[in-house]
Design brief:
alpha/beta; binds zinc ion
Amino acid sequence: MTGYVAPTEPPTRGWDLHCHTVFSDGTKTPAQMIAEARERGLDGVAITDHDTTAGWADAQEAAHAQGMPLLRGTEITACDEDVSVHMLAYQYDPRSVHITRLFAATREARLHRTERMVARLAEDYPITWDSVMEQVREGGRTTVGRPHIADALVAAGVYANRSEAFADAVSADSKYYIPTPSPTTHEVVRAVSEAGGVVVIAHAGDMSRNPRLLSDAQIESLIDEGLDGLEVWHRGNPPEQRERLLAIANAHRLLVTGGSDWHGAGKPNLLGENLTDEDTVRRIVERGALPLWR
Ligand SMILES: [Zn+2]
Ligand SMILES: [Zn+2]
């Protein structure tokens, strides 16, 4: 990569490349995201909802109307041995068979996991697969999961509300719980690369998410397969982890990105609190399959 010099300090201006909207677990619409990015004087913003491209069309419309440049992205949940990993995929072709197959396989595995959880719960509680499916109101775009199981338990009169169900039978600590299946980091890197996208490991130094972090060797094993960068400027990465990630990025000429992980009112993270510099964004656009949206 000719002449790329990763910033060694958090950029003070640029783009926020990590934002969630109502299309995953954020509380604001894509149009509100664009408006807030403008208010805060950002150079541009990326939409990166979890495991979906469903918000892209709304974000494109708002970005165009409000004159705010947009990168299109997705935060994909993956696993690497026993580590749960989030990967930010940017500017890939959403119609690519490689990416549609990856998402379809994940949806299928998650549906099967929910069926198995319901079967376990049905041994002790008055719910069935049909009574869980009756709780799905979002239509085909949603993944049937624990919220719907909780709602079925509420409908059956077992709990007063969803939170009570999540605190008990539906909790990740209950004996009925089955972890959510995810593709491997290697599968994600390959699929995003084949779809012409740019793929970055999100908040790899955040120790609150896992009992252990990805090792240098685990990160390096993804570079040959097409890993493009590391998200260094993120509130979850403490200073010593930022140093470690920067060293890996510099040794392997990886892109260094930053983002707020904004969730609207869903988390304290402020839009634009961490940024990616203009040169890095330009390189993401050059590598990606999609044009910069404006
Ligand atoms: Zn994440
Ligand atoms: Zn996120």
